[in-house]
UniProtKB/TrEMBL annotation:
The protein, known as: Transposase, IS116/IS110/IS902
A single BP term in Gene Ontology: DNA transposition
A GO molecular-function annotation: transposase activity
Domain of life, per lineage: Bacteria
Domain Transposase IS110-like N-terminal: 18-162
Extent of the signal sequence: none
C-alpha cells in the first residue's frame, strides 16, 4: 500500500528507493534523507567498490533501485545489485532529466531517486538472464563474422593485385575449389594447370577456364598479404565455430 508525501502530496510508490547516476569511473548513489546520515555517496566502478555500494544500500534498507542506462557502464553495477536481491530499474537518462520540477541544488542521483520514489520512471526492457547470455554470444558471433568478411576482402584484393581472377571462375573464393587453390598458392604452387586441377567436381567452370584465370603476375608482397589474410580468415572461422558450440 502506497503512502503520501505530505509536502508534495504525491503517493510514494517505492518507499525505500535509491537512485544511481552511472559514470565510467565512479557512480553517485542517493537514498532518502531519512534512510542515512549520508544520503549521497560516491563509489568507484571497481568490483570491490560495487560490492561495498550494495552492502551500504542493504544497510540503508533499500529495496528498489533506479539507475541510468549509460553506455555499457551500468552492466556490472546492475548485475551485482541484482545478485544481492535488489529490484533494479534500468531507466533512460534523457527521460529522467526531462521530467519537469527539478531544483538546481539536486544532483542527478538525487533526482533519479526522487522520481523513482514516486514511481515516475519507466523501466527499460531488460531480457531475462538466459536471453541476455544468448544475445551476448550472438553479438560476439556477428562481430567475428564481420572481421572474417574483411579478411576475405583482403584475400580478394591480393589475388587481383596479382591478376589472379579466381572470382570470375568460382562463385565463392572461400568455397571448396577457391580455398584449395588459394592454399596451394600460399604453399608455393604457381602453375596454373596444377592449380586448376584442384577444381571440385561441383564447380561449373571448366579446368581450362580456371587455368586461364590463374595466369598470374606473382609478387612477393602480395603473396605475403594473401598468406596473412588466409591466416586471419582461418582464425576467425575457428572463433565463429566456438560460438556455435
Amino acid at each position: 500500500m502506497s503512502s503520501f508525501n505530505k509536502k508534495s502530496g504525491m503517493p510514494i510508490i517505492h518507499a525505500n528507493a535509491a537512485g544511481i547516476d552511472i559514470g565510467s569511473k565512479f557512480h553517485v548513489v542517493a537514498v532518502g534523507n531519512n534512510l542515512s546520515k549520508e544520503p549521497v555517496r560516491t563509489f568507484q566502478s571497481f568490483t570491490t567498490e560495487l560490492h561495498e555500494m550494495a552492502k551500504w544500500l542493504q544497510e540503508c534498507k533499500i529495496t528498489s533501485i533506479a539507475m541510468e542506462s549509460t553506455g555499457i557502464y551500468w552492466i556490472p553495477a546492475f548485475e551485482i545489485l541484482e545478485s544481492y536481491g535488489f529490484e533494479v530499474f534500468l531507466v533512460n537518462a534523457r527521460e529522467a532529466k526531462n521530467v519537469p520540477g527539478r531544483k538546481t541544488d539536486v544532483n542527478d542521483a538525487q533526482w533519479i531517486q526522487r522520481l523513482h520514489q514516486y514511481g515516475l520512471l519507466r523501466a527499460s526492457f531488460r531480457p531475462g538472464k538466459d536471453i541476455a547470455v544468448l544475445r551476448a554470444y550472438i553479438r560476439q558471433r556477428e562481430r567475428l563474422l564481420e572481421f572474417k568478411a574483411s579478411h576475405i576482402q583482403h584475400m580478394q584484393k591480393a589475388l587481383m593485385q596479382m591478376n589472379l581472377q579466381l572470382h570470375h571462375v568460382v562463385s565463392d573464393v572461400t568455397g571448396v575449389t577457391g580455398m584449395k587453390i588459394i592454399r596451394a598458392i600460399i604453399a608455393g604452387e604457381y602453375n596454373p594447370r596444377k592449380l586448376a586441377s584442384y577444381r571440385d567436381t561441383r564447380c561449373k567452370e571448366s579446368v581450362e577456364a580456371i587455368e586461364s584465370a590463374l595466369m598470374g603476375n606473382y609478387q612477393e608482397e602480395h603473396l605475403f598479404t594473401l598468406k596473412q589474410a588466409v591466416e586471419f580468415f582461418d582464425y576467425y572461422s575457428d572463433k565463429v565455430s566456438e560460438c556455435d558450440k
